[in-house]
Amino acid sequence: MSNPSERPAPVPQLRTSEDQATGVYANGIGVWSTQTEFVLDFMASLPIEMAVDQNGNHFAVAPQQLVSRVKVPPPLVFQVMRNLNTAMDQYEAQYGKIPDFLSGPPQEPT
Description:
By secondary structure, the chain is of the alpha+beta class. The chain has 1 helix and 5 strands.
């Protein structure tokens, strides 16, 4: 038998159950943390609803449906950020700059 320190590192192999294979759609994310974990709440926007406050004033509500909650240990957050940064660089190299939809509508190319 070979020395354990000489063995090659195991190759990761991702397996997905059929009910999770298609994934879920999310167009928003909330992030919060405790001392031992980061929580990533992925959400999808629902249609705007009208509501009435205690004084009879009408206002719009923008509901969000939680579609997935993922809890990760703090050290893994750094790997998530590195992987996202690499994926963003690859995406922008192939498709162009990703617009920041939070700062307004996309600008027409000049």
